[in-house]
Amino acid sequence: MRSILLEFLYECSKIPYQKWFKKEEPWDISISQLLKHPKSSLGFHLGTFLLQHDFTPQPKLENHDVFHVLTKTGITVPEEISMQYYLMGNGKRSIYLYTVIFIGTLLYPDKFRLFKTAYRKGRNALTFHQLDFKKLLNQSLDTIRITFLITIK
């Protein structure tokens, strides 16, 4: 029930968030274009992630899926919340992040250990949340993770 509530809130907030809060230009890139990048690259892994989960790139929200790939975070609701904790630990600040963390923590107090671990991983990584990931699509995923000390599971 709590997952359904959070998914409903996400669907209601996605379009206004894209329209009024996200200032970046959309990437205008397809999954097939991403899959043309080298197999070790961020772009290829992003394309694979989208394909695996039957997602399409969301205009102005592409970084969100990149964060999933970089941190190797799953897509369940508690994992989505943990990724926001990871990003908060990494220094990201936004009304959306705080809202997800606040509501998610209230609805999932039993997952606080997961959230705390994610936050610590984000603090231990070098700041990466603000990078222009579109320019890094050809770069090796492993090199990006190593460079920014991004730990996965």
Q: Report the total helices.
A: 8
Helix percentage range: 55-70%
Arithmetic mean pLDDT: 92
User: Structural class of the helices, strands and pairings?
Assistant: mainly alpha
Question: Regions with pLDDT < 50 over 5+ consecutive residues?
Answer: none
Q: Could you tell me the radius of gyration in angstroms? A: 15 Å
Query: What is the distance, rounded to the nearest whole angstrom, between the alpha carbons of the first and last residues?
Result: 27 Å
Q: What coarse outline follows from CA principal-axis ratios?
A: globular
Overview of the molecule:
The protein is mainly alpha-helical. The chain has one domain (33-147). The chain is 59% helix and 0% strand. It contains eight helices and no strands. α5 (77-89) runs parallel beside α7. The protein is globular. The model has no long low-confidence stretch (mean pLDDT 92).
Question: What are the salient characteristics of this protein?
Answer:
single chain; mainly alpha; 8 helices; 59% helix
Q: How is this structure best summarized?
A:
By secondary structure, the chain is mainly alpha-helical.
Topology overview:
Blueprint lengths: L1 H19 L10 H4 L7 H11 L9 H10 L5 H13 L5 H13 L4 H13 L16 H7 L6
Helix pairs in contact: 3-4, 5-6, 5-7
